[in-house]
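Follow-up to my post from last week.
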Amino acid sequence: MELPSAKEVGAAARATLPRMGVRGVTVEYPGVRALDNVTVDFMAGEIHAIVGENGAGKSTLMKVLSGALTPNAGELLRNGEPTTLRGPRAAIRAGISMVHQELNLVATLSVAENVLLGREPTFLAGIAVDRSQQRERARALLAMLGAEMDLDRAVSELSIADCQYVEIAKCLASEAQVLILDEPTAVLGEHEASKLLKLLRRLRDEGRAVLFISHHLDEVVEVADRVSVLRDGRLVARFQRNAMGVLQAEDGTVATEDTLAQAMVGRELGSIYPPKGSAKSGAIAAIELIEFGAADRSRDVSVTVFPGEIVGIAGLVGSGRTETAEAIVGLRRPVGKIRVAGAERTFKHPRAAMRHGVTYVSEDRKGRGLHVSLSSVANMTLPSLDAFSQFGGARIDSVAERSVVTRWINELAIRCARPGLPISSLSGGNQQKFALARWLETRPNVLIIDEPTRGVDIGAKAEIYRIIAALAHEGLACIVISSELPELIGLAHRVLVMRQGSVAGEVTREQLAEPGCEERIVRIASGLRAERQENHE
Amino acid sequence: MSRSHTGTAVRMQRFLEHWGVLVAFVLLFTVSAFKQGGDFLSIENFRNLLNQNAAVGILAVGMTLVIVSAGIDLSVGSMVVLAAAVGTTAMNALIEAGWSEPSAVVSGALITILAGTAAGALNGALIVFGRIAPFIATLGGLAAFRSIALAIAEAGEIRSQSPTMFSALGRGGIPIPFAENSAGKALTLSWSTVIFFVVAIVAQWFLSRARFGRQLVAVGANETAARYAGVPVAWIRFRVYALMGALAGVAGLVQSSRMNSVSTAQLGLGSELDAIAAVVIGGTSLRGGFGRIWGTVAGVLILGMITNILTISGVSPYWQGAVKGAVIVLAVLVQRGSRA
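User reply:
Got it. Predicted complex:
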């Protein structure tokens, strides 16, 4: 089953050969169906864009295609025939290469060494690397991409754009016929991005199947031959470029940034959101950020949050939301000013922030938010451990500790039969409730909660929304960072939209109630101006 | 992995993971008893086992705490000799300066422990504030601390100038009721054993019941998550290395008073390996975030008994290292299922 080479696939045969595809693929995680019966073909000589909100299943699909994940149901097709890929190495051997968002280069090796990593030209029966040939081949591959760089430089010294070229050259070195790129332009400037898109077109014209994920809908409309829209794990819309060069759905809808955003979002707000209360009028601001940011990651974030108010922060992954929050509580170096209850503060450590009532619940529950190997009790009381310490810390009052844990289990309806067992034995929703409760036990005035419902099933989601709304009602100032727009719209009093490290716009309470509000946020987050649609040719 | 096993095998595996160290301890104890006839079960023999291993035991207890924090301390043997050299030299100087023996011995003992603490604090500072990996920082300490001790004594021996009290500390102890040796003399539990037990009990308490232990486990299990939870990570890590140094000072005091002198080329040589081995045998995870002092104590005694059995059986000392090595690897294999 040899793959026909790029040259054999002539221009005439272009776009007719399904190089790669999936049939009825379903992937289930505990409590979440990440992909639901997805069928899609990727043709040789086509650029196929996959779009969708965060959590829609794009990354899961990429993992299935690159052999990193075996689906629970459905099959993988290669050149029209069912196949299985046992791991990423098998995928590479089958001519499928993936360029990850976090690039997989060896920082200490040179450009040439990275390009030919694992396929070094050798002599002396394979024991010695032929350095001159290694450089020659790397130079040829990079030249094919139109990239020129010092082959001997360590990759750690390259710009991100150059790293991406090295990564793509690496794919070419493995004779990839299917190239999968995960948000390749997310970290690039405008000029570099347009160069990269040009390159993708070249790779397509040579007969390769190019898949890419992007949040930048304008570039999708510009370069894609086909677009698949994922929402909640299902393929909800397809667009294809017709003979006239217009990207169109089967029902005739022309793909624009707006129709794509609509297809991505396309869902009604359910009743899982509690009614919104109002901020305490006349109260002193719980927290004020003044031209605040995380050093090198975000800047000029100015916002005032009053007791009882829920302020949402939207934005794409990488827009600096999390970094800004981490800088507030001292996990990153801050720039600008913070005022807490009217007094200016700088926190060097989350402990210091906690003493002044400012707490942050991390988005990364498994890696940062909780200690998965420790018991629910130990996790629950870790931030507030001083309150349970006696004799200068020589003894923890375990009776008081248990009773506090039991209280929170009852209060937040946490399903946890044995709090002494590792917290990893609980479901995502119950873990998240503990991640929240451990900070509530420190009696905060300001709660910053990052992706409050990531990896949480729908039932627990509704409960977490109810808890946040109730806390705000009692006078807590909440900042909710989320990539799930319905969540922000349903929960927040107003939403700041961040883009490339600063606030790109604000959506007011009135605007949140209007239809089309999600598209408004998506548009601000991806940098499309409102007039763009009128000017579109 | 365990899915293919039968239920009993899985249960057996779990049991060994948790209690394997005690099983090994009882097994070895029985083998020893048979090997030595009636002698091994004598109180005297057990007392000797404890006395011989008290110093390494004290180090191993400290090492358990360091390893729980996901660190390592390779410099413990060198800290022992440095602390003992500094303390004994100071004691001798005080005696020569005309201090009374009790005050000179007590001051010398305190200086020994302080010198160890200072060396440990230096390790901690390099690791926490200098951001040097514990393995590297303490590898430096391993070389440097012994070198300082050698320089102090010009590679020779420092003999204690205390006429009686210092060696009484090393050789005396609490009389064990109703126990006498074969010669009919009353047996004593040495001070070094008493100190070992006190250190182990206090450490077990701190690890499982005190704030420091809870935070130490949190830092070892996931340092980033601990920082996010407001744990003073740097301070905790610094303190555990300083504490390790203090315990190395205590071990140095135990050893130097037992010998009534400090041999700067020999004292504590290689004891970092014995301490780490005892911790590993005891079931503490080298990845950090989990540990148990009682396991380490059992590990120390297991290593001690193996040495005794091999010596009594007439196995050449050259081969004893190979047997010990095999035991260490075996211990990790049995326990690795869920942790190590």
